[in-house]
Amino acid sequence: MLTPSFSTLRLAPIGQRIIPGNLNGILGSACKQASDNTQAPYDLALMSGLVAASISLQGLVDVITPTGVQSPVSLMGFALAESGERKTAIERLMLKGIRDWQACQKQQYKELLADWESDHLIWQEGGGIWWQDLKRPEKMMAVPKRSSESGSRLSPHAR
Predict the structure, then answer these.
(1) Is the distance from CB of 99 to CB of 56 less than 8 angstroms?
(2) Is residue 77 predicted with pLDDT exceeding 60?
(3) With 0-12 CB in 10 A as exposed, 13-18 as middle and 19+ as buried, what is 23?
(4) Which among 61, 110, 138, 145 could disulfide-bond with 73, CB atoms 3.0 to 4.6 Å apart, if both were Cys?
């Protein structure tokens, strides 16, 4: 767990870079390359890279806040820049992998939901009837029967 300490927090003077432009490691290299490719300011690329990293790590890393609350790592970024400073371009580039993963998850969910809805409809049309019968004591020992009419109504929904 990472425990932040606000006693050592110092605000940088206005106009001074808080994080050096030569940030080492994979994140720094990715931000530098994204900045070069999109011609966006490095600080904007760095913010987008940090946001992307934070989103990617939310399921893996927890932090403890100064108040003692444990929660997933989270970071909100807010870009305030002039028109034409490549805010959208850098955001799209840095979050492309996350957006692609989200689209894949959404598609898988739609497929699973369609399967469930089909199964649920089949259950309602066929299985749900005998379940209702089980609630009546005189029907407890009866074996549920499916009529041919019931089967023909369900066949379009079967997979």
Answers:
(1) no
(2) yes
(3) middle
(4) 61
